[in-house]
Design a protein that fits this description.
alpha/beta, Rossmann fold, Hypothetical Protein, Haloacid Dehalogenase-like Hydrolase, Chain: A, domain 2, 8-stranded mixed sheet, 6-stranded mixed sheet, 33% helix
Length: 289
């Protein structure tokens, strides 16, 4: 019997338009009606997950968020959030300066704010994309997983450009490193040498590396939750498409990589379902139902 359904967001539950399809929505609601709990496991914080939870009626049926790749867990039934580990100031400075030296965009992410630095060579590329997409002057300049400019103001209303790490205030949940795919591959290799296992860093898509404090992963947090709630690996289904989903796959018996995932992610899953554009999550859940 399946008790929990664990879902990555971007590239998995959400299509390229950033939406949950009606087919997938209905499949997940039907699963909850039968007593299964839904867990949204994402690099996003609770403020950017809540509207999707409402679409899935998780406010009615309960469920959980594994936020910011495991930094925190949000219990929807209790309305309670538990934060486990954030970056220390000296860690922020080290990671920020490393990414800056590699001439990649750096984003230091809090619950509702992003402090960022953009290298000069990115700026004409961002400007050209703004013209091509017809973006208004008020549109944010932050890089995203798929584009040079993305709008994340729904969860991060405060967005401030900084010139150095010392200008980043407060508690940081994660740090994003964003650039062209070939550059990101090079930087990822250098991270393994520079950080020597002192941080968690995963390629969530070809343009994006997400960096978290050591021991903060979706998989570690999911395992912790399973022990606390007495849920066994065979009672959980997990879906994902990124490297940060691999540890989650290893924690459960039934893991599904999306067809749009990289091959090294697919190799770690129990099976591969259709892509996020083809309702891959719904395909599996409809068989389950």
């Amino acid at each position: 019997m399946i008790r929990w359904i664990v879902l990555d967001m971007d590239g998995t539950l959400l299509n390229q338009a950033g939406k949950i399809s009606e087919r997938t929505q209905q499949a997940l609601i039907r699963c909850q009606e039968k007593g299964m709990k839904v867990i949204l496991a994402s690099g996003r914080s609770y403020s950017r997950l809540m509207r999707y939870a409402r679409e899935l009626q998780m406010d009615r049926y309960g469920g959980y968020f594994i936020e910011v790749n495991g930094v925190a867990v949000y219990d929807l039934a209790a309305g309670r959030r538990e934060v486990f580990r954030r970056f220390e100031p000296q860690e922020v400075e080290e990671v920020f300066n490393f990414c800056m030296q590699q001439q990649a965009e750096v984003q230091c992410v809090q619950d509702r704010a992003v402090y960022y630095w953009i290298p000069e060579w990115h700026k004409p590329l961002k400007a050209a994309e703004r013209v091509r997409r017809g973006l208004p002057p008020s549109y944010p300049n932050l890089g995203g997983a798929w584009t040079w400019n993305t709008d994340s103001r729904d969860g991060y209303p405060v967005q401030r450009e900084v010139a150095q790490a010392r200008q980043v205030p407060g508690e940081i949940n994660k740090i994003n490193c964003i650039t062209e795919p070939k550059e990101n591959s090079r930087i990822y290799s250098l991270m393994e040498e520079a950080f020597a296992g002192r941080y968690e860093y995963t390629r969530t898509c070809p343009r994006l590396i997400e960096i978290s404090p050591r021991g903060v992963t979706k998989g570690d947090r999911l395992q912790q939750m399973m022990v606390a709630h007495g849920v066994r690996p065979q009672e959980v289904i997990a879906f994902g498409d990124g490297e940060n989903d691999v540890k989650m796959f290893q924690a459960v018996d039934h893991s599904f990589a999306m067809a749009n995932a990289e091959d090294f992610v697919k190799a770690k899953a129990f099976a591969v379902t259709r892509s996020n554009e083809e309702d891959g999550v719904a395909c599996v859940l409809e068989e389950l139902l």
